[in-house]
Amino acid sequence: MRKKVAELAGVSEATVSRVLSGVGSVKQETAKRVLDAAQRLNYVPNALAQRFALRRSGNLGVILPMLPKVNLFSTYYFSEVLSGIGIAAKRRGYDLLLLFREPEEPRDYATLFRTQKIDGCILIGAQDVPSEREALAELKEGNYPFCLVNQRFGGEAYNSVDADQGAGMREAVRHLLAQGRRQIVFLNGPAVYSNSRDRLDAYREALAEAGLAYEPERVLLGNYSRKTGYLQAKAVADLVRAGRLDAVIAANDRMAIGLLQGLKELGIRVGGELALIGCDDSDIVRMTDPPLSSIRVPFFGIGREAAERLLDAVANPEDAVPFEVKLPVELIERASSMPEGTT
Prior knowledge:
By secondary structure, the protein is an alpha/beta fold. The protein is 42% helix and 16% strand. It has a 6-stranded parallel beta sheet, covered by helices on one side. A 6-stranded mixed beta sheet has the order 7-6-8-9-10-12, sandwiched between helices. Helix 9 links the parallel strand 6 and strand 7. Helix 2 (13-21) packs across helix 4 (47-53) and helix 8 packs parallel to helix 9. It is elongated, with a radius of gyration of 25 Å.
């Protein structure tokens, strides 16, 4: 059979042997010709041989941040995004290679491609810092297929899949205004994430739309952890008691839940004197007291979309076109932002 494959491909039997065994150096064009001939003759080499021949690893790389004292796989955001990526990769015959990045570790992503460890790369938790920008610029210059999840870089057109966080924020502000709330504080995350900037811009736009002034002191900062939400509780309680605050929107559920816990300890009734909205609509918000209103973000769908689009680009590089996708979000209204007695 190898002789027939060699004749059809126009190469020697030795070349066929090297291609199908994955041993030895063969031009990629020659390897593809051999594999195509083998397929036409129903002589199918194993998957590993095909990967070697076509210089593919069969791995989709996922780069994740190492966060101190955080179990990534137990957090709603990371578990949902990774599940979406994993499902899409499995359907395409790819394995996931998880790569954890220390905060100060050099971001040498291009080496992963040069050493053929991965065929494509999805970055989760990327930050807008100089070292990240340099690493992404190198990937783009090398024409390596990669995609950002929930992050964009102003002035640079990189493949990305995100949620429409601005639309979610505007919907949350309008909901609070409809409940008669006028003194709305925003508990935001770090500015190194584009989502933080998107939400802040939308918060300002929604206030302006309602004829309300933007006051910088009404923007509090956290780092997306439950602890930072908890630590902001005293500042929020003081503003409530001074009659200068009647609603808070938190940039994620973890901060909202931490704030809720802290306010309870300080005697502030959420859902009564203070409305509270989170973001993510994680499973736990249905079990808080009161249940937490939250902006539902399709993290599973974001992960799946990122993997599918990236693997399309890997499979057909000559037809690949840049993409920047934003998936819709939805405000889920619960007791924490509704008038007392409303279900």
